[in-house]
Structures are given as structure tokens and as C-alpha cells.
């Protein structure tokens, strides 16, 4: 690369003159004559020349503009014509790839379209078009990836008109694998059938959704279904608070008691535990259910157990569920028995959908920053750009 090419960042150019005013104007031409692009012959003559004006980069607060003298060649061997091509500049584009990538990275980093239109002298629509191009290129590279080994599936709200969307997260690498509109099997069927490497998925983490469980069984046949620990604990608390409402409606309205009832036993101070037991002494049935709930939560929070330890704990857990079947928490017992295998699988793994829920918070911030999205594909591109696979973009 010549000295001028090293300064500008484009090889194969011969600088003719440079003018510095409000911006940096550089006139250049090709330094070498290439072989024929059709037959690789060397006998070329210049048929004609024309000028291209290219925005290339910013140096400080000034924009460097290239005025290229582009020859049109005629091959003496194959009698065909072609124009000179430059590295880093696409045909018929008025900005170099370095300039477009600079705008993309600035906008991706949080600079607004209005600010970029002033600093780079392009319209806000051009900023959006370039951003969509690079994000689409990044997404196309990610579309060829295989499914992650540890997959998290959860739903989140998109719009009132479009409804809910399903998030597929790579829990091992802490990335969003994809986002698709809909949360039912018919709406996701076409996408799930086209996934590559579905047989390689080893673990699928989800909440207690029958729809997602049927999807996991059908489209990820070799995966172990693991229930999300947070949703199981929340389900236990919801059923217990509902039974509490039946036994003492007035006490259920006490916010202090609600806070104590929801906490784990080991998170209560001594005086808080004494006050709670004093209240539960007036309701023997509720007290027995509270103690059973605490035992149940302790079972649910187990993790990283070996197979031998898990098999040793399983009979006591099943016996506790059988006791709940004859109590006011019989609906909870039926649900736990239905999801017994995914809940027991939690004891062997530490992964949960907390990573996916964290991405949902980021998605909400992305939507707020854009003042909402009407088009789901635009929303999906933004999510994958900020939360998805950070593959390497072919910059030149």
C-alpha cells in the first residue's frame, strides 16, 4: 500500500491534489492498471473516464471527500468492457464502506439520527437505511448458526395489536438467539422446522407453560426440559396466598404480613419469625400449609445435585406432594405432579430463565428508546443487534 493509501485507508490510489476548506477534498486516480476482470488479460486500453464523489471518513470535525477519476477499460483480448473497481468502495455507492460502518457503529452506540445527520452530512433516512443494512448483514450471518446447546424459551409482550412474541435465548453464551412473533405452536411451526441443529439441543429451560413444553418435546427431541426455578416458586406463593385469602381475608390485606409470608424462612429475623408464628397460631390449618410451603420451597431451590443425591431426595419430595393433594393446595399438587420431571431436573442444573428475563428488560428499553415499534421485523433487527450474536462483520 502506498503512503497516500495508508493515510486514507484505501489501497491502489494515487493522490493528485488535496484542498482543505470546510472539509477535506481529495482528488485521486488508480495507481495501477488491473488485468481484465473477464479473461485476466493484460492488454487494456482506457476507453473513457468519469468522476465519482465518495464520502470516505471524518478527520476531526471535517469530512474527507474523495473525487475519484474512474477509467473505463476495453480489453483487446476478449473485446469486453468494464470499469475500475476500488477496494472498500462498492459500485454506484456514494460512500465508502468505512464511512457507512462508522455511521452504523455510532448509531448502534446511542448517537441519534439527528446528531449523525449533522456531523456526517447525511439525512436521518440514510442513517436508518445504512443501519438496517449492517444489522441485516449481521443477522444473515447469525441465521446460519446452529441451535445453542442450552436454550431458554420465554414470552414477552410486543404490542396490543400483534400480541406476544417468543424469545429464544442462548443461556450458555448469554445472548438472544432469536425473537419470533407469536407464542403458539402453529405460529412458530414454520420457524421451528427450519432451525438447524435441533437434535443437538441438550437442555431447554422454560416456565410452566404447556404450550412450550409440547414445542420442546416435538422440535427438540433430545433435550431435557428444565422448569424455571423462579416461576415454580412464584406459583407456590400464588397458590398459598389464594388459600390465605379464603381463611383470613382481612389478614391477607396486611402488606407487612404479605411480605413475611412470601419470604423464605432463613431470610426472616428472629422477631419477624416470632410475630409470624404468633399470627399463624390462630389459624392451625394455615400454619400447617405455611410450614409445608417452606419445605416445598427448600426442595425447589436445590441445585447442582448428583444423580445419587437427587434420587435420595426424590421420595421425600413426592411424599410432600401427596400430602398436599389432600389439602386446600390440591390444585398446586396436581400442577407439581404434572411437572415433576422438569422440576426434579432443576436439581441437576444451575441455569434458569433469569438471563432471558434480563433480556426482556433490555428489549423494553429498546422499544421505549424508539418510541415503540409497529413493524416486528424492525424490532427484531434492533434486538438482535443489541442483544444477539456479536459476530464479525466483513467490513470490506
From TrEMBL:
InterPro entries: Transpos_ISL3, Transposase_DDE. Residues 151-383 form the Transposase IS204/IS1001/IS1096/IS1165 DDE domain. Pfam families: DDE_Tnp_ISL3. It comes from the Bacteria. PANTHER family: TRANSPOSASE FOR INSERTION SEQUENCE ELEMENT IS1557. This is ISL3 family transposase.
